[in-house]
Amino acid sequence: MNTETQTKARRPRPAAVILTASAEARVAHLMDTAPEGAIGVKLSTPRRGCSGLAYSVDYVMQADPLDEKIETPGGLFFIDSASVLYLIGSTMDWQEDDFTAGFVFQNPNAKGACGCGESFTV
């Protein structure tokens, strides 16, 4: 029996959130126009709204080692470590039309949403 420590090759872990090409392009645009010192964009789910949780996208000035980090062609995208469990398997898209523009989420963990679509519950 071999007593040396063997290391197994690990499969890359899939990202908690999938960004569409449109969302990646928006992250690139945000990073092109970011305030000085911003290292990326971060998705979190703060408690607010009628249903309890909302999606929030903000600039990141300093990386938190516990946050999920996704490298996109336009820059770094972080997911708040406290929010990952609410977002696993989600898809994030950027949609724009004549009247609105914003990130849109398809979240399999959301069990309900408020009427205005600003918040969700798990």
3D structure, described in words:
This protein has helices at 21-32, 84-87, and strands at 17-19, 40-44, 56-60, 68-72, 75-79, 90-96, 101-106, 112-113, 120-121. A four-stranded mixed sheet has the order 3-2-5-4. Strands 1-6-7 form a three-stranded mixed sheet. It is 13% helix and 33% strand. It is α/β, with parallel strands linked by helices and 122 residues long. The longest helix has 12 residues, at 21-32. The chain contains two helices and nine strands, in the order E-H-E-E-E-E-H-E-E-E-E.
Brief overview, please?
The chain has 122 residues and is an alpha/beta fold.
Q: In sequence order, what are the helices and strands, one letter per element?
A: EHEEEEHEEEE
Q: How are strands sequenced across the largest beta sheet?
A: 3-2-5-4
Residue windows where pLDDT falls under 50 for at least 5 positions: none
Mean pLDDT: 84
Number of helices: 2
What is the percent of helical residues?
10-25%
Distance between the termini: 48 Å
**Structural class computed from helices and strand pairing:** alpha/beta
* Largest sheet features: 4 strands, mixed
Features:
122 residues, alpha/beta, four-stranded mixed sheet, three-stranded mixed sheet, 2 helices
